Amino acid sequence: MNMSSVQVENRVKKKLSSYAAKLQAESGRKVSLSEAIDRLLDMQLREDDIVNKKKLASLFGILKG
After folding, report:
1. pTM as predicted
2. Residue 15 belongs to some domain of the structure
């Protein structure tokens, strides 16, 4: 596994650590900060995809389905 460092402000690290702890509590297993970031990015990309599909549907009058 290729690892690199990312610098974040302490307040961001605290929020990320809290999110990782929430994921850990839900899954019952250790969750790394990297996995927490990956999950957040996946959620954002899915949300962006949904928004883009809705915009496209509204432009062409396509019903969701």
Report:
1. 0.72
2. yes
